[in-house]
Write a structure and sequence with these properties.
alpha+beta, 5-stranded mixed β-sheet, 4-stranded antiparallel β-sheet
Amino acid sequence: MAMAGQKGLPMTLFEEIQPVSGAQKHFCVGMAGVAVSANVVWLAVAAAAGGSGWSRAWLSFLLASLLVLAICILSTLGLRLKIRVGDSLLRVQVWPLPPAKKIPTEQIRSARQRTVKPLREFGGWGIRARRGHLLYSLGGNDAVTVEYLHRGKDRQLTITTERGDELVAALSP
């Protein structure tokens, strides 16, 4: 999907913006339920024990619950995986988190479609690193792995995408 820009505007060969997947939303809500339940149990135990531990337990419960709620809201409403190829650059970002990963296209050696299992291969979703291999994923198993050269070393970047064939085509010379 090449979009020839007007004079002076950047050239975009590929662009995709992915929200958090439905499965990820359900996982987050489930984890929030587990965290809140654990805090309620801990709060009940502290209340039964009485003493000054009660006020500390209440504060911990409140802070933990707010943290879990904030993470769930951010992950279900705010996060987006933004992928863009244009102006001789591959740019990938989990928005609104900085920074974006930028790879000059002349450093890209290959790009191929594959199936990825983020939990098994990288320990989860989001931005994950494993010995010279990065993962950007907000859900799904369809992905593109890009092999590139960075500071003289071979690296890999795997990006989950719903349009892998188009991304590979945009990255091919």
